[in-house]
Each structure stands twice: as structure tokens, then as C-alpha cells.
Amino acid sequence: MVSRVIPVDSFDFVLFGATGDLAKRKILPSLFHRFQIGQFGDNSRIIGASRSQMDRAGFQDHVRDALETYGGATDKEAIAGFLDLLDYTPVDAKGDGGWDVLKSMLREGEIRAFYLSVAPSLFGDIASRLKSTGCADDDSRIVVEKPFGHDLASAQALNTALRAHFREGQIYRIDHYLGKETVQNLMALRFANSLFEPLWNSSHIDHVQITVAETVSTEGRGGYYDQSGAMRDMVQNHLMQLLCLTAMEPPSKFSPNAVRNEKLKVIEALEPVQPENIVRGQYRESAAGGDSYRDHAGNPDSRTESYVAMKVEVSNWRWAGTPFYLRTGKCLRTRESEIAVFFRKPPHNIFGEDNELDANMLVIRLQPDEGIELRTTIKDPGPGGMRLTGANLDMTFADSLPDSGSQDAYERLIMDVIRGNQTLFMRGDEVEAAWAWADPIIHAWEESGQAPQQYDQGGSGPDDSLLLMHRDDRRWRPIEA
Ligand SMILES: NC(=O)C1=CN([C@@H]2O[C@H](COP(=O)(O)OP(=O)(O)OC[C@H]3O[C@@H](n4cnc5c(N)ncnc54)[C@H](OP(=O)(O)O)[C@@H]3O)[C@@H](O)[C@H]2O)C=CC1
Ligand SMILES: O=C1O[C@H](COP(=O)(O)O)[C@@H](O)[C@H](O)[C@H]1O
What we know:
Elements: E1 11-16, H1 21-36, E2 45-50, H2 56-70, H3 76-84, E3 86-90, H4 99-105, E4 111-116, H5 123-132, E5 141-144, H6 152-163, E6 171-173, H7 181-191, E7 205-213, H8 222-226, H9 229-247, H10 256-268, E8 278-283, H11 293-297, E9 307-312, E10 324-329, E11 336-343, E12 361-367, E13 371-379, E14 388-396, H12 397-400, H13 409-419, H14 428-448, E15 453-455, H15 463-470
Helix pairs in contact: 1-2, 1-13, 6-14, 9-10, 9-14, 10-14
The structure holds NADPH dihydro-nicotinamide-adenine-dinucleotide phosphate and ligand LXAUTJHC.
């Protein structure tokens, strides 16, 4: 099956922070891939805007380098075609310089998208100048990167700054996990099949495990990360979104507000997490003497967590009695993200003591090998009588849908901005609700002053995370290389 490309209308895409790290590693390569497969409307243009003094040719050189280095681009004709769409103007987010030139580059009647790939401290300045200079109109989209705030108060301040100039319907808050193919597939699995929904509740589901394990350290971004930690960097946003999509009620339709209303209800139903239900970890120096978290942070006393595991309760009719266990960490054994849904065991065993019954388990693998797997119990084939064994119904997308094409999460999300579809973007109230849940947890840590438990690099996290499960007579799925 070849994926169908549905072209978008032509647009003016203004990339603030066009000379920055995220632009060159993700945004520009993603735009190029969508251009290369023919998704752009005919007159589309991309305008880079940053502080650096550079002309159009200089920006084209910068972008060519980014596409070759980070986008795997080799097709000279496609690269030349893409570079043709580019323009550049220096713009100072905090001053008046460059805005009149930017305004003169924008065309009447085209979709305008302003992507703010800059520090959040510049969001308010840019939003305000976009409006006061007439660069943005009432249909323009404004896209903002994470982190969306550091806590509830700062997220509220960002929302206020953006909403002073743009309607909520124009604001696209990026959480790149929502652009991942299998994350969207979770909604298809739940709401496009009649098989699962009747079982999707605490009567049939014992518990859910959501894991985002990373092998990378914080090296190179230790300064930023030490102010953030796993809770702010991953749990409040990415894991929260996975939890919401797993736990939410069926929306009445697949529309931005219908989906986001249901996600918001999940966040609002979260119980406060008690300290005994959270484990924080920090990676120590490796056996080979490799740098520790504290070395990477440049802070020998750091109490910031690079790992967190927690038991979360969703307090509503559907989920009462079914805990969600979340965990994420750096420097773990392997890169592996998944949602594992553990069903309850069959209520009665007709096969006798020699055949212990296993529970069914549905695993939604987000990365690296995207797919869906259902663990079932079958008869062990052969003449050995009625002996039971486990068997997996495995749908690895690379095998079952080999020509479906893969796309980076940013590709999908940027095209949705042009289409004007906010379903996969966080609404302001959602982000604030997530911070309102996370803030007390973080404050309690800060007040206690307790250091996270040290854990080995290349393992599966701190020992206490095992106890979190053992206490409930459960086990984590192994993080396996
Ligand atoms: N890098 C990453 O992997 C990720 C980044 N993010 C987020 O994306 C955003 C950008 O991050 P990143 O690319 O790493 O940051 P960088 O520091 O690499 O780039 C910052 C960009 O902002 C521009 N800039 C700074 N000050 C001004 C100003 N006064 N006026 C106009 N432009 C200005 C810089 O322009 P110039 O260089 O010309 O001065 C540069 O292009 C941040 O919000 C970050 O949190 C989110 C997820 C991952
Ligand atoms: O937002 C972030 O995400 C990455 C993990 O993203 P993935 O797509 O590679 O799973 C994480 O490493 C980073 O710390 C965080 O800021």
C-alpha cells in the first residue's frame, strides 16, 4: 500500500529561530520531506527569520547543509527546488529591526504560519510584534515549541501573552509525541474497532504501563535539563498525552475540541500522587568511568531526576481500581517506548493446576519498531495433550505495512498547521491542567530536598522502581536490548 499524499494549500511559512538547532535538525528536514513527496501547494514559500545577519544565498547554504546533514537529502534536483522556495530576513524579536521587511515579504491571500522555534521567553514579544506590524492577520497560525512553561504560573503567563494577540484557534502548541504514527494509531485502535472498547475499563483491565526509555544522556543540554528534570521534560507533556489518549472517553467525533475536551477530563480526574508512589532516579557515572548526570549538569550537588516512575490513579467510573504506571529515564538499557495494557486473568481456570492462565496483554509499541502486539494463550501444538502456551498476534508495521512510508512526527504536525487542524496540538487549558497536576509533586520534592536514587547507566532504572510494582504484586515489562 502506498501512502496517499493529500496536497495542502500554498502558504507562507515563517520560521523564527531558523538558524537554531531545532530548525536544522527537525523543522527544515521535515519541510523538505513533505516538499519532496509533492505535498506543498504550488506557490508555497518558507521565510527564515533570526537575529543573524544573512542574505538569501547565505540562508540557502545553511539550509542545504541542514538537509544533507540531518535530513539525509541526496536528490540534487529536489534540494534545488526546495532552496528556491526560501527567503530570509534578519528580525530582532525584542526590537523593531527587520519587521517591515518581513511584512513586505508576506503575500495577501496565502495561509500564513509563524513557527516560533525560539526560547519561550521570546513568545510574547514575537506574538505582539506579529500583530502590531500587521504581519499576522486573523487567520494566521502561530506555532510554539516546548517547553510550554516551567510550572502552572509560567504556563498561564505564556497563554495570556499569546491570547492577547491570537485566538485559541490560531495557537498550535507542539507536543511532538502527538505526531508519532503509533500514537495516532492508538486512537484508531480504540475507536475504529469494536473489539477493544467494550473491554477498555477497570472490569477487564488490571493495570496499564507506559514506558518511555531512552539511551541518551543529558550531555550537551545538561544546563537546560538540570532546571527541568524528567518530570517537566517528559512526564508533564509526553507521558501525560499518552496517558490521556489511553484513558479518555470516546470523543463524539475526531475534531480538535471533541478530542481535547476528553483529554482534559482525564487530566482533571487524576488523583494527586502521593510521595510513596513515586520513584526518582539519577544516573551515576558508568562502570567504565563515563560521566555521571551531575557531571553533565555541571552541578555536583544536583538533585534533579533523570528518571521517574510513578503510580497514577484516574479517578472516574471507567478507571477506578486500575492504576497507570508511568516511567521514563535517560541512559537506560535501550530506547523503547510503549503502552502495555494488562487485562485481567480469566475468572475461572478449566484447564487444571498444571496450566496456569496468563492474562492477555496488548502492547502498543511507539518506537523504535512501531507496531501493535496482542499476547494470547493457545494450546501448545503437538501431541502433549491440553497444555497451554503464550502466543503473540504481532503487527509490526514495517512488516505488515511495508510501503506505508514513515514520516517524522514534525512532518505530520507542520502539515496539520497548514491544514488548520489542531487535533494533535495541546489546548491552553490542557497544558495548564497538566501543570496543576505536576506542580504539587515537584514542590514536594523541592521542599523535601531529598536526592534521587542513583542508578546504573545501561540498566533499567533505580531499584526502588521495582519495589513500586512488587508492592502491588506486579512487574514492569523488562526494558530489553
Ligand atoms: N533543539 C532541540 O532539540 C529542541 C528544542 N526545543 C525548543 O525549540 C526552541 C528552539 O530551540 P533551539 O533551536 O535548540 O535553540 P537555539 O538556541 O539553537 O536557537 C535559538 C534561535 O533563536 C534565535 N533568536 C534568539 N534570540 C533572538 C531574537 N532576539 N530575535 C530573533 N531571533 C532570536 C536564534 O537566532 P540567531 O542564532 O540568529 O541569533 C536562533 O535561531 C526552544 O523553545 C527549545 O526549548 C524543543 C524540543 C527539542
Ligand atoms: O521532548 C523531548 O523528547 C526527547 C525524546 O523524544 P523522542 O521522539 O526521541 O522519543 C527527549 O530526549 C528530550 O529530553 C525531550 O526534551
